Structure prediction request, 87 residues.
Amino acid sequence: MNDIYRRIISITELRRNFGEITKELPFVESLILTKGGEPFAELKAVPGEKKKVMMGVAGAWKNTELDKDKLWEKVFERKSRRRSLVI
Prediction:
């Protein structure tokens, strides 16, 4: 797993900012908690919470410039096929 999706925080910071940190939790792979400057534990959201976030943004492109079928034609075209995929 790429470390860009992980955050390292101290247990003290978690205690002080629990509400803010837990709101952010579904958007990161995990949080590494430190105790005395050393990694102590890993905290991550359960898959159900991550799914709720994903479902909340589903359809976010509706009625925007990205909602145009013409824009997506190239995405569904495969170079190895003679015909485009039918949606």
User: Anything to note?
Assistant: The chain has one domain: 3-73. The chain is about 35% helix and 20% strand. The mean pLDDT is 80.
